[in-house]
Please model this.
Amino acid sequence: MDWRDQGILLSTRRHGESSAIIDVLTEHHGRHAGVVRGGASRKLAPVLQPGAQLDVAWRARLEDHIGAFTVEPLRSRSAQAMGGRMALAGLNAVVSLVMFSLPERDPVPLLYHKTTQLLDLLGQDDLWPLAYLRWEKNLLEVTGFALDLDRCAVTGGQDDLRYVSPKTGRAVSGAGAGEWAARLLPLPPILRGQGPGTDEDVLAALEVTGYFLQHKLAPAMGHRPVPDARHRFMTLVQHRHAANGKTQ
Amino acid sequence: MNSTRDIENLIDLMAKLPGLGPRSARRAVLHLIRKRALLLTPLADAMTTVATTARECLNCGNVGTSDICDICTEEKRANGELCVVEDVADLWAMERSGVFKGRYHVLGGTLSALDSIGPDDLGILRLIDRVASEEISEIILALNATIDGQTTAHYIADRLGDQVKMTSLAQGVPIGGELDYLDDGTISTAMRARKAL
Model:
């Protein structure tokens, strides 16, 4: 069994003295693990940092073996990620959420491309929170918990969409909500691609996507807690929002 | 085979050491037996001594033979500078260079989102206590230039940045490094941190 693909490095674990087991999100083979001989060496260790774009060749005797990777770096994102807190926290949030939510060896080309685009924006702190929010919406979509925010689940109308049903992830209008309004989640306009996308808007939207990560996706993944890295990223965005509020 | 059981046992144990496998352990044990008086007996004595006396310094986390290590007890090193390192091997590397004359703090690892290693699992709370109780003017974060290392550095800076001056090691071209062989991340970091000649 062998194949060759491109991928984003998600994690590296040391295996024995000189090898490493890496987890890569590939375009055509999904999230895939494998051993890299010499992966803990001085030559390869700097290459095998989370977020790195790699050309990987996988080979194993049988398909269900863990197999071995040979890797070639295409581009490192370490410098951009280490350039600032926001970028580091963002990268950690993305790789830990991918590891948390995606099953192994199940191709998700859409999410692969969205993740590549998002990570290529690392270091552009102004754009990043909004780009991250869009990515998280895509993540919910590919894991089967897409938010349907185009029309009201009750009336079918497209106007006055104010809420999200915590049960179905569908939008609900003010008229459609009626006496149930208090039990629904608020629908921040930015989730529908409307509004300026300030940190405040993004944080409000991340509360909604976070609800579905925690109450829908996490139970489906064996009730594991949503990775703390996401919370740390949100805390940084909150701090920036608070700091901007003070300066204005 | 019974007569060689103890030796086989020693070989098995030696083979678990870093850098050694079954064959190299066998060679090492054979060498020790041949140099019994010169190597084996002193080595066994030294290992027995270290096994009973080695412990972590209660203050900094360094490894020594007393509750407080030599670096922490030396008055001259209380110059207000505290160097934070990931593990004892890093502390020893800093000491080998001989450039740092202050004291250390060993974290015992780095934060890792994927391995669920949080601040409570490391010596970060002890570091915060030290900043409160000792006269520290500067914390030097000598953590690895990895995603986890830098995440830890930023976390510590966020926790302590308003109480004490924080600095971190520079990143860039290593001594003897050739640009052609450096990864693009190192080159771009070095470019950003360039200095006037």
User: Anything to note?
Assistant: The radius of gyration of chain B is 22 Å.
